[in-house]
Each structure stands twice: as structure tokens, then as C-alpha cells.
Batch of 4 targets.
Target 1
Amino acid sequence: MNKKNIYGKAKNQFYKIAEHSLENVWDYELELSKEVDFVKQGGGNYKLDENEVFFIQTQDENLQDYLNHMTNTNSCNSITKNALKNLETLYLFETKANKIHLYIQRIMPAARIEKTYLSWKPDIKLAHIETKLNVIIKNNTDIYWNQEKQKIYFYKFVDLERVFPNFSKYYREATKEDIQTFKDKQKYPFLQVNIANFEKMPKTKLKTIAMIVDELERVKENIDDYKGYANKYKKNFIKDDKFEINNTNDIEHLADIVFRKIYTTEVGDEEIRRANSFKVLEK
């Protein structure tokens, strides 16, 4: 079995990590049975189904640091113990028809394990004390880049953003202006926002707020329909004829209403369900 060169990144430095076939260790190639355009699906609103994977269109410069070290592997030093302690990614790449296929696995801090062991040394009939640093290798790929298609594939945006921070622009969060709009009682009298501190709110919630703000004019024009929808599926959410937002859970309740995520099944037994994500098939 041919050995593959395995590289990694630690604290903005690139290293050659090991040589290994990776058989029964890391099945790095992804099955791209169904591709989902992350940007067109709202930059994070969509939740993947089985056998689906997100992608974003790229250009070479989006991955310039990695590309530089793939085109010039001699620029990668051999790994050191200190670098291994700070390892952030493992990666390997293949070149097919002069185009690069890059496979990346994130190394989480919990996967870097340093422990002291007692091990038996039969030649001295005593135990040997040593400290070993181990890094857990997962059998999956977090990020895959196809240079020929100019697409980068991923399952979780947080993985992509941590490895390539320049892609964070595709995950729009609520700005200060969005927050002010969200809290504007005169413009949107049907909202009562009682949250004082948005700065420490998780990114996912800021993203949800940004998406809601983009829909508020549509809600305003059809407010009676939205209130009727809320009274059908979330009867306790409207208070004093307003959608009252006191915490992050209420933001999700409002998103359910704004994006009409709650529905009743029409075939078989009637069931009220909540869609984890949505696709607009036809208007």
C-alpha cells in the first residue's frame, strides 16, 4: 500500500507530520451524493439531511496559505513535539489532471492528549516512566477542496470558519443596525424585544436575527396572517398583541413563525411538525 504524505498546521506554521497509507485510519474521500449551496440556502439556515454536504464557490486565493505549501512542500518543516501540542489541522492532498484535491481534518484541543505512563522494560526488569503526546485521528474529513470545480465542501460551518476565517463573510450575523431595527417599536409595533445585551449572544442566534430582520417588512405587510399562524401553533407566544422576545428561545420561536416552520401533515394521521430547515421548491 502506497504511503501518503500527511501535513498539518499549528500556530500559522505548516509541517510535514507523517507518512502512512491511512488504510483503516482515515477514509478521507467524501461521497458527494448531494451538494447544497450554502450561500443560496441562507448561509446557515439549512440543516443537512443524510448524504448531503455544503459547498461554497471558491478561488485559489481563498486558500492561499495552504496552496502555497502544497505547491512547495519543501516549505513545510518536519513536525516537532511542541508543534504537535498545538496542532490545529491534519491535511493531505492529491493532484489529478494538474488540479489539487485537498482533504482537511480539524484537530480539536481535546484530541491532543499528553499523559505520563509506566511501561514495562524487560531488559532492566523495572518499569520505565515516560510522557507521551498522542493526537487522535478521526476517520472523517471535515473540509474538502476541489480546485477543478473551485468548490470547498464541509458539513459544519464552524469547521470551515476556524480553518479559513476569510469564509466568515458568508455567514452573516446581525449588525448593530440590524439589532436596532429588530428593537424598533415604532417601525415594527408587533415586536416587544426585552433583551438588553446582544454582544454575548451565540453566532447562530445573531444569524437568525439577521434573517428575521430581512423578512420584517414582509411580516409587517401580512401581520394578521402571521399572528393567525402564531395563534395556531404557538398560542402563548403573543402577549398584549405582540411577539415578546425575552431570551434566545424566543428568537427561535419568532423564526419558526417568520419562516413558517411549523406545519400539519396532510396525508395519513394529522401531526403537527417542525421543519428543522427549509427549501423553497415553488412560489
Target 2
Amino acid sequence: MAPKATPPGECPQCWEHAHNPRIHRRLKPREDCQQCVNHMRNGCPNLVPKKPSRWW
């Protein structure tokens, strides 16, 4: 199954970890994903820019 493209304005890592169950499959019950914990503490540094609004 091909991975879904990250929508504009979303962090690629957050998007992948939220929509790909294989990433967290190896974790034991109640075990935290170290990548997710690090990402929550330090924020999302690699956001995909949103498309500019053309409403105005």
C-alpha cells in the first residue's frame, strides 16, 4: 500500500506516525514511542507550508 502524501500544513512525522500502524506495532503495551515523545517535547520542526489562501 502506497503511503499517503502529507497534506499542506501538517508535519510529515506526525502524519506518518498517526496513519501508519506498522510504526508502533513493535512497542509493548504502555510503552511510548521515543520518536513521538521527542517530537512532542521539541515541537514539529519540519512542517510542510500551507498553500496561500486565494480568497481575497
Target 3
Amino acid sequence: MAFENAIITKEDDEKYGLSKIYYKYNPYYETFINELRWTIDRDADCWLWKIYSFPDPDYDHGTDSKGIWILYYNGEVIEVTLDYDIDEALRPEKFHRIWKLLNLNPKQTSLLSASDIIKLLNVILKAYGYSTREQIPNYTMELQDLTDCGVK
């Protein structure tokens, strides 16, 4: 699979119904879909999109690192809750992000087991890198499964 970070196009919106998905999670925000970015493998018909950031309890109008992402795989939609920490002990030589998988809904699909979903997320998050807009040198990451899916 060859994932890339890309701008969502009008054609993407029409094909996947992205505006409807976006407004389900963000009903009070107006945006132009073509200003948003995601990580996609068009040949594999698979993508991951951060759709919602939880409010930060410490900052007015701020957002937390915890968010809801949508994983799409060949017609199947999975809601993924992710958070992350940065391993400060490795800085400045490395920027190591520790992704924490908090929830999958559903936990498996007809095409993907929980284990398959976690493997797929690991591949996509490596392609995602630091962000869909910016990559930084010496970036590394790991994915920790904190769900009750029974996959370790």
C-alpha cells in the first residue's frame, strides 16, 4: 500500500460523502472540504482522516491531542479514537510520538479483524508522519493498543 498525505478534493467529497461525515462530528463549523487533508491510498480504497479534536479542558477554545478519526477500507467505516504523547527523553535527537489507540467502533468488520485494523493503522500513521501538512526530521512513532480488543 502507498499512502500519501493529500488535500481532500471535491471528487473525494462526492465519492465518500465526506461533507456529511464532517458535519456529523462538527455541526457548528462551516468549512470547505477542499481545505482539509487526509492520508489516503487511492488504489487500495483506504484512508484515515482526523475528523474531530476533543476540547482541551485547560484552554478556552483549545483542542486536546485526543481525537476521533475515520478509517475507511473498501466501503467499511471505522471510528477510531486516538491520543498521543511525545517521548520527551528522546528530544531533540528524535521526535518520537506514541500514538494511543483508545477505541475502535466497530472493533472488527467483515473485511478486517481487530488485529488487521491495528496493523493498518500502524502503516497509515507512519505515512501520516508528524502531520498531513508538515513533516519533521528525525520523526519516529509507535502505536499502543489500549483498547479491550484483546490484541497485543
Target 4
Amino acid sequence: MMKEQVLISEDTVEINAKLREIERSVVPQLEIVKKAFEKLSIGTLTNSRLKSLLFDDWRILRSELAKEMTELNDNVMLDQVVQKQIKSSLGILGNKLQEFSESGSAYLKYYISIDEAGKFFVPDESMKELKDMSRVYVTSAKGLELCDAHKAAAKALNDFYTLAKEDMTANISCLINLFDIGEAGTVIPAEQDYERYVYAQKTGKKKGR
């Protein structure tokens, strides 16, 4: 059974900043990587190949790609020219991957994929993960209990503020001054002359009559 999860806050500015960074920095760099990969002439850059390039050990991957390029070559025994071309192509790809890994945007590689048309995008699941980096949730039973109690306290305070706001400034301190800590260690109302409030002096039917 999935735990209840309540969203407390969301930094939309930070979320949008990361999405802009993907659009303006990550995608352009990966486009360069894609072009370098396509020059290997071993097919298009699929999503599984992209994940291998971004996350697998380059030394192992380089060997696998070289083997694949060799097998696709018509020559049974590759001459030095072809071998040099393979080495050069793999070197260029490795350099582009290294440049991306050393960029400040490389941490966002976990959220990017490529579709069948060769377009980079952020899938729904990754989008949620990306947003969760800038969100605060409450999930524990006691945390949810605190959240509910806090909301109830805010509602009760708002009920009073609605009646007394003509005597208050738009500052949270004026609300804090309405309360004190009693001898029992509980929150109690600070002494007030309620009859001096504008609301109490208004003419008209009293509540409940």
C-alpha cells in the first residue's frame, strides 16, 4: 500500500530553471554527442545506446563499439587506414562525452531521453523526479498529524483575523502578539479589551440573535 503523500511546498522557480538548463545546455551538448555517434556508421542513437554512452564505463564501451564497427566493415582484414578511421571516430565521440561530463549541466543527464525520431526530451517519470528535487512532502503518520494540526490552527486564527483585521496591520507580528504561553505550558490568548475592537463597536444584530 502506497504511503499518503502531501505536497507542502514547490520551488517552481528552481524547477523552471532546471528545465531551461536542459533546453539551453544539455540538449545542445547531446546533439553534438549524437552527431559524433552517427559518424560511427553503426546505426542511429537509440535511447538504450544513449544511456550506455552517458552511464557505462567508456573504456569498455569503446571496445564494444570498435568491435561493432569492425564487424560491419566489408574487409575481413582491416587495413591501417580503416583502423585509423575507427580510432579517430571513437576518439571524437569520447572527447564530446568527456566535454559533456565535465560541464556544469551533466547532473541533469539522469532526466533526458531520446525518442525514435532522434529528439531529446524529458519523459513523464523523469519530469516527476526532476520536480521532486524542488519539492517538500510530508509522508509519515506523525508528520501528517502535525500538518493537519497546523492547518486547523491557521483556520482558527483566520476566523479571528476575519473579525478583527480592521484593528490590525498586514504583519504577522500583530497575530503573534495575540498569544502567550500559560503556566501549564500551553498557548493561551493574550489579554485583550475586545470591546475596543472596531468589530465589537459596530451597530446591528449581534451574532446568535
